Amino acid sequence: MSGRVRIVDVASLAGVSTATVSRALSAPETVGRATRDRVMEAVRATGYRVNGAARDLRQQRARSLLILAPNLANTFFSRIFSAIQEEASAAGLAVQISDSRIGREKLVSLGYDGRADGIVLLDGAIDPDVVNGWRLPMIQLCEWNEAYRAPRIGIDNAAAARMAVEHLADLCHRSVLHVSGPDGNVLAVTRREGFSDGVAARGIAGTTLAGDFTLEAGACAARRWAELRPRPTGVFCASDECALGFISECAALGFGVPDDVSVVGFDDIDFAHRFLPALTTIRQPREALGRAAAKALVNLLGLAQVADPGDPAIAPTIVVRSSTAPPPTDDSRVATITLD
Amino acid sequence: MSGRVRIVDVASLAGVSTATVSRALSAPETVGRATRDRVMEAVRATGYRVNGAARDLRQQRARSLLILAPNLANTFFSRIFSAIQEEASAAGLAVQISDSRIGREKLVSLGYDGRADGIVLLDGAIDPDVVNGWRLPMIQLCEWNEAYRAPRIGIDNAAAARMAVEHLADLCHRSVLHVSGPDGNVLAVTRREGFSDGVAARGIAGTTLAGDFTLEAGACAARRWAELRPRPTGVFCASDECALGFISECAALGFGVPDDVSVVGFDDIDFAHRFLPALTTIRQPREALGRAAAKALVNLLGLAQVADPGDPAIAPTIVVRSSTAPPPTDDSRVATITLD
DNA sequence: GCAGCGTCTGGAATCGATTACATCGCAGGG
DNA sequence: CCCTGCGATGTAATCGATTCCAGACGCTGC
Fold it and tell me: Coiled-coil intervals in this record (chains A, B) (predicted)?
């Protein structure tokens, strides 16, 4: 006995009206004790579950939030999704996910079909007209776009990049390479700016190669790096994936990390501390980020009792491991240092 | 002009009834040419989008499928989610995700609230009463449970494990270790069985250590392995994560892979081919698996025109890379071989 | 000229809940 | 004793689409 039980079935079994059943379930204190017990018993007996579509239609909300990410296959998002879903679930919300590259028409519909109450945007490259056309509460997470009319949550990417440069400079590297993300990407641009600022501040030489955050981009950058003269002794990759690709290809080319070159990553993905060598990297607290975004969205939806101020805990930190060390001390380098 | 446009607004602007607007949108061929054009123009002018909740209620379906996974933070699922979402999107379905450990009550609701038309189950450890209580089309993917009344899609885990053993045996390893998943898990159990079978078939020595698929489990297993006498020269880990943890800890203990010990993983995650050494592993075609599951579910929902037979392409393969090699030829081993 | 048929369109029921408003009974104050 | 007020409950409107059914219209063929 289940599946197609409606509220009228419960009502007739309990000998009350549907209004009373509805109230007994959603506002128990407004229903008399005896009646409530009778209703609850009928609910149990029939196995009744409210029909979401009917409730959503009547209440004009979907009890659901939508996550839009530029590539669901990217493992970087896993922990963020997990955190968002936990928070959402706690607030009684379901979680819908979609790749943001499903095509303009479908994308527009997603924000319009009334099946999500709010959106977590992990993509800063969607057409702003589409995004601003949605009349839903939104939060930008990690990536962002100035044109979107929505609050942002994320780390200070420029500061994070500067930390990486600082670290390499502190180890006495005088020439560093940045393997960045693609030109159009805000994260890539901001981290590159931070890199440039850091390099300028420390008076060291900085070079940039554009990549796209992937393993292959890192490997490709390693081959380019090997041909540079003089070769930078420190490398800052815009993502851990990229850094691992770089290190892996270095090994194939006969270079050791950190003996021949120091490498700093970005993100602190799960594997970073188990890579060989363990990767020095900028930690993005992904779980905290996801949680903060979900909380902020729940707040915007007016579902939270307590409004908490912006979480100050979302700061990037550098995690120093074994992929960075002082630069190799070959003759030319010693000579250079002596000249200073 | 948008957001709160209803079908009646479009109808009155176009000077037709709501029935006609509805038909013009969902079955254009049943509406006269002139009328259809007028309706479409009104749709454009008003920016009308159908209300999903209303349509779902009337049609008694949600145009949405639910993915249930035991841990959304597990990066293994990323590619699967991505593939499922692609197929679902192509079939006009939204994708909802949930961690399957959200608590029994919430879990029961998920399958009952009418907001999903079908479920992709990636968890074989949910209470069968809950799962079988759902009256929705379901597909079990990767993990499974005999008690669930739902078709399964996944690789042959026992055969896959045997392939790993074969590979090690072919390299002349005579004593191999299996770092398995946790006891209750079907994947762990099946792979362990395959391991045992393989070992027996080749007449070599096999030992098993229970882990839980994680990096740390692999690292822990490495420490245990180092204390074994004699030490197995080949290791088959039940997941790539575990294998990477094992190799990483081996390095910390002063053992080299594959010089001192050969390691085979399972899954072929993205990093496997870039790890140092590149990991020999059993490839699970995750994208194909996700795609097949989504297609099968779409078929069950009766949304597909063509029913395609079970995809035979979903077979595990072994990808041989650099983490496996013949066993080290120390004296004791040479002696043993000589005795054969 | 008319029956018969096919095409297009509109009226109204329907999906299943929530909720504004009305009603009823009873307790307490004037 | 009547009236007010309040708590508990029922009646019916409502959310916004889809779809059954029937009617209008134009043609064809006899």
Answer: none
